[in-house]
Amino acid sequence: MAFMTASESTAPGIRLRPEIAALPPYRQGRPAPDDGFKLSSNENPHDPLPGVVEAVAAAASTINRYPDATALALRERLAARFGVTADEVIVGAGSVSLIAQFVLAAAGPGDEVVYSWRSFEAYPGLVTVAGATSVQVPNRPDHGHDLDAMADAITDRTRVVIVCSPNNPTGVIVTADEFEAFMARVPADRLVLLDEAYIEFVTDDEAVDGSTLLGRHPNLVLLRTFSKAYGLAGLRVGYAIGPVAILDAARATAIPLGVTAASSAGALASLEAAAEAELLERVSVIAERRDRLRAGLIAQGWPIPQAQGNFVWLPTGEHTVHVADRLFEASVVARAFPPSGIRISVGEEASVEILLGILGELVPTSQEGHPK
Ligand SMILES: *Cc1c(COP(=O)(O)O)cnc(C)c1O
């Protein structure tokens, strides 16, 4: 069959885009055993608030109808909070969908998208799907973004730069000063996406906060999500704020009606004053737990970078699979990124002692050695 190409092993006879056929299929990671801890997806370990569940359940009575296509009620609520107009807010089925929309709107074949690496595992695939080319700029030795090198990597072909703070999976923030200096170097006609999926967990005062920069840069869009701090990962709702013209372009690349009425209702209920106060109290509990876990690991000798999200990064290098397997044997599912390291979400309180117990036996003694 002469027409078959590289894609034949996945779909014999079907002519797929070769770069799509070559993408690794999405793997969600192993499910945790019943009595174990699922610390692989940076989810919120707390059950949803009863009021939020009720709002979602109430929305179920309208599912014979399509949702409001632009989720106006939620956009208005967010707009009021951030002091912008509703047209400067876009909501999507998780902020991952929105990142895809922005990349599709700005970059196609022959164009480049610059981001740090290692960063969010979804970025490479989104860029490839748009037909564009990823330009991955290595993180600094401290696992933070090398913004100078990222600015240097911008060429005539660059259409989008993605900045992730705190960076998933390494946990390191971009500071406000670093970001300011970076924006001064980026040409004003190139889109900068500031991915702030974990900003609610940040306790370092020096961190960039995109909400303080609104209206200051014609090319800046910030992205946030209800999935992590607000504990709505399963509902799929995130949002972006930025200049109307850029958001209009992203609206054009959306698959219509991605945000359901239930998603909007759950997000709106989470923004009610009492609900949000409780959710943010939980966030501070998780941030405190994170700091304790990190301090404990550092005391054992682990070189853990700054951790400002709801996760810690273990730079396990070539030992990544071994350490992840040992964790799994101890009923902890973490996210392994061989050959770089392991991201462990901050979950239930009981997981901290278990993690410190097992990882205490696996402390790297040198560049080479992790005890078996
Ligand atoms: C989790 C995450 C998102 C958003 O996820 P959604 O559930 O799609 O809102 C975006 N960026 C990063 C870096 C993340 O880790």
Secondary-structure map:
Elements: H1 18-21, E1 37-39, H2 50-59, H3 72-82, E2 89-92, H4 95-106, E3 112-117, H5 122-129, E4 133-138, H6 147-152, E5 158-164, H7 176-185, E6 191-195, E7 220-225, E8 238-241, H8 244-252, H9 261-270, H10 273-300, E9 311-314, H11 320-329, E10 332-337, E11 341-345, H12 349-360
Helix pairs in contact: 2-9, 4-5, 4-8, 10-12
The structure holds pyridoxal-5'-phosphate.
In short:
The protein is of the alpha/beta class.
Question: Please, could you describe this protein's structure?
Answer:
The chain has 372 residues and is an alpha/beta fold. It contains twelve helices and eleven strands. It folds into two domains: 29-44 and 275-360, Aspartate Aminotransferase, domain 1 (Alpha-Beta Complex); 50-271, Type I PLP-dependent aspartate aminotransferase-like (Major domain) (Aspartate Aminotransferase, domain 2, 3-Layer(aba) Sandwich), CATH 3.40.640.10. Helix 2 (50-59) runs antiparallel to helix 9. Mean pLDDT is 94; it is low at 1-8. It binds pyridoxal-5'-phosphate. InterPro entries: Aminotrans_II_pyridoxalP_BS, Aminotransferase_I/II_large, ArAT, HisP_aminotrans, HistidinolP_aminotransfase, PyrdxlP-dep_Trfase, PyrdxlP-dep_Trfase_major, PyrdxlP-dep_Trfase_small.
